[in-house]
Amino acid sequence: MSEKAIKQPTKGRVFTNNHFPIRRTFVLFTSHTTMLYIADQFNHVNQFFVLLDSAIADIKYASPIRMRTVKEFAASMELHPNYLNTLLKRHTGENVSSHIRKRLLEVSKNLLLETDWYVQDISYCMGFSDQPNFNMFFKKNVGYTPSEYRRLAVAIDNSESISIIPSHQV
Prior knowledge:
170 residues; two-stranded antiparallel sheet; 7 helices; 68% helix; 4% strand; elongated
């Protein structure tokens, strides 16, 4: 063996000093590739949230929400639905359908509280074919029907405004 040779005890292979820069480059390349892969994953996650927000952003009675399933979002991102689910689960702790559900509920609650639209109109705008399905979806996730939620919110709002008025003015 020459003086430049170094024996790796774990693998029993002999490498010369000339091989180490190549190995370091490989490690750097692997790390860089991994970093690009992770950055690509975050881009996909971000793209999903941008698509979700854009699908819900312009809610009008005349144009109900179109994309509501994992398959539809994945297709628009040119990804497999399972891969999109895996990415979101890995990076957010929740799958795609739970993010969609939370966003639909958030927007539904806002429409119930900030508009005077009928529940049927809101259900149509949220992409439900009929109001009973929307009612079941809402009650399952919130604990109240949409009408009950609206009534409770109005009652709570009225009671807070009454309690704000000083007692000597009542």
